[in-house]
Structure formats: structure tokens, C-alpha cells
Amino acid sequence: MPILGIIASSLPAVTTDFESIATVTVGSGGSSTVTFSSIPSTYSHLQVRLLARSGRSVGSSAGLYLQFNSTFLTAAHQLRGNGSSASASGSSGGLGNDTLLICVPGTSAGANIFGAGIVDILDYANTNKNKTVRILSGDDLNGDGGIQINSGFLNSTSAITSLTFGSVDGAGNIPQYSHFALYGIKGA
């Protein structure tokens, strides 16, 4: 007989679908970029979970950029909200390090305020299709801040073997204690 309701929801979940590949915690003095390289092609998808700040001084629009195999996304869409307004945008023609893909606070925010983000890279090792990414990120600056959802397209069928994060516009180092964790997601 199946277990239903409250009893079923209280059972511990056992999952082996996510495997830790690597983690980086930025040390003293910060780092101009955080890179995961030599990513194995043995998973179906990748996920990066991060708690970070940007080296850029602008408040909630400081943010991080992201590169795949040293290449920027070809196109992206963005939905952003800040508690009082929302906006949507899209860009194509090749994005650069001036493209805010991950919403985290900058150096003008309080010293202990970090933003959170989840980056999903789908079918990263499949050499028969172009790559897509989805990103959910945000920060809370005690009355300011924002949440952001991005989807992106990389016009490349090459397997993704490296990921690089940096401060938007290359402005300053990613501050100390920023933490990035890369996971591989197994297929069915």
C-alpha cells in the first residue's frame, strides 16, 4: 500500500542525481574571475550554485557575467524585478562582459551582504545541439535589491568544458568569501 499525505512528506529524500564536481571560495584580496575548467562530459546537465558579490561598485545592478569555453552567450532574455517595478529585455549579436547575467550586490552594499544564484546549463556535453542556459539570481539590500531570471543561447555545438564568472565590465575583483559550487546532474 502506498504511503500518502503527511507521512510520505516526512520521509527523508534520498537523491544521488546531483554530484559535486568542484567548489571555489574566493580568498583574501578577491579574484578577477572564478573558473571551473576540465569539466568532465559524464553528466547530462550542469548546475552552479553561488553566494557571491561583484567587484563593481554599483548597488543591485553590479552583477556577474558568465563565459562558456571563454565565449560569451550569443543571445539572452531577462526578466527583472525590484519590489516596485519589473522590466524585461533581450539582447543578441553576442554578449560581452558588460552583460549582467547574475544579479548579486556590488562593493557599495554592506560588507556582509551576498546574492544567491542558480545557473543550469542544459545538455552541456551534447555535440549535436547548441547550448542553452537558465539563471535565477537575486539579492536583498534591506529595501533595495532585485530578482532576475535569464535564459540564454550559445550558438555552439562544442561540449562545455569550462565556465568563467567575473564582475560586470571587469570592474574589480569578485570579493572574498564569494562561493561557487559546480554540480553534475545525472540523466535518467
Write the layout of secondary structure elements.
Blueprint: H1 5-9, E1 18-25, E2 33-36, E3 45-52, E4 64-68, E5 75-81, E6 86-91, E7 115-122, E8 131-140, E9 145-154, E10 163-167, E11 179-185
Antiparallel strand pairs: 1-11, 2-10, 3-7, 3-11, 4-10, 5-6, 5-9, 7-8, 8-9
What value does the average pLDDT take?
88
CATH architecture type: Sandwich
Fraction of residues in helices? under 10%
Beta-strand content bin? 35-45%
- Tell me the name of the CATH class: Mainly Beta
The topology string of helices and strands comes to HEEEEEEEEEEE
Sketch the major β-sheet: 8 strands, antiparallel
**How many beta-strand segments?**
11
Number of discrete domains: 1
| Structural class by secondary-structure content | mainly beta
Going across the biggest sheet, name each strand in turn: 1-11-3-7-8-9-5-6
Number of distinct helices: 1
If you compute it from the alpha carbons, what radius of gyration comes out, rounded to the nearest whole angstrom?
A: 17 Å
CATH fold type: Jelly Rolls
Distance from N terminus to C terminus (CA atoms, Å) equals 26 Å
State the shape: globular
The low-pLDDT segments are none
What does this structure look like?
The protein is mostly beta strands and 188 residues long. It has a single domain (16-185), classed as Jelly Rolls (Sandwich). 3% of the residues lie in helices and 41% in strands. It has 1 helix and 11 strands. Strands 1-11-3-7-8-9-5-6 form an 8-stranded antiparallel beta sheet, with no helix packed on it. Strands 2-10-4 form a 3-stranded antiparallel beta sheet, with no helix packed on it. A hairpin with a 4-residue loop joins strand 8 and strand 9. The mean pLDDT is 88.
